[in-house]
Specification:
Elements: E1 7-11, H1 14-22, E2 26-28, E3 42-47, E4 50-56, H2 64-77, E5 83-86, E6 91-92, E7 101-109, E8 112-118, H3 124-127, H4 130-138, H5 145-150, E9 207-209, H6 217-220
Parallel strand pairs: 1-4, 1-5, 7-9
Antiparallel strand pairs: 2-3, 3-4, 6-9, 7-8
């Protein structure tokens, strides 16, 4: 029944939605949803002991308004939800704000754009597990769980890590395309390989998001 689901997972893009569904330990047929009260389409499953319902924003609809409508319908349909997580592509934002920074909400003052929009910090329950997550991830005796989850995408060619992973200067304008095969090598930043046992680094902190799709590195920085 809808009462069984306690975690909602919301994606903004189809690419994120496909990856999210691959992260489920098990996918199964869920309860019937009344179309009169909910316009969303869902994938049902579980991760460990948690029953998860995954939904995606409608095709071509981005931003906080669309996300709010998806979340509103989810909360109405699944009354026992404990958390609704927006899991999307985001940029790390090292500053003193308390939550997600909305980079395109603000005001012009003195010829400069000043950000005024931000969301609240995550619930205390989620913040409370971060110290334990950090401890487990830094313990070399523990298996790399994130790497195990990433291996679930090994059968998806479009989501695999490239054989040569280049880092470009942040002010470089990339050539349009699915990858960087046509990008110039003059702006590649050479850096030493990571010397730890993890496949990736985890950013614990604020991220920047907004209603507009941001693909310009200079504007982003």
């Amino acid at each position: 029944s809808t009462d069984s689901y306690t975690v909602a997972w919301i994606c903004a893009l189809e690419e994120e939605y496909v990856c999210a569904c691959h992260m489920l330990d098990e996918e199964f047929t869920g309860p019937e949803i009344s179309e009169d009260n909910d316009d969303n389409t869902y994938v049902f499953g579980c991760i460990a002991k948690h029953y998860v319902v995954i939904g995606c924003l409608p095709a071509g609809r981005y931003g906080t308004n669309s996300a709010s409508r998806v979340a509103r319908d989810k909360v109405r349909t699944f009354p026992r939800l404990r958390f609704a997580l927006m899991v999307v592509i985001g940029g790390g934002a090292p500053n003193g704000f308390g939550g997600v920074i909305q980079y395109d909400l603000g005001k012009l003052k003195g010829g400069r754009f000043q950000k005024t929009g931000q969301l609240n910090a995550p619930p205390e329950k989620l913040l409370g597990v971060i110290p334990e997550m950090r401890r487990l991830y830094s313990d070399r005796k523990k298996p790399d769980r994130l790497a195990e989850h990433l291996r679930l995408l090994d059968d998806m060619e479009d989501y695999q890590k490239p054989a040569v992973d280049r880092l470009y200067a942040s002010d470089y304008s990339h050539v349009d395309g699915q990858n960087c095969d046509k990008c110039g090598l003059h702006s590649v930043v050479h850096h030493p390989e990571r010397q730890n046992h993890h496949t990736l680094y985890v950013h614990y902190g604020n991220i920047a998001s907004g209603n507009s799709v941001l693909k310009d590195a200079n504007v982003r920085d």
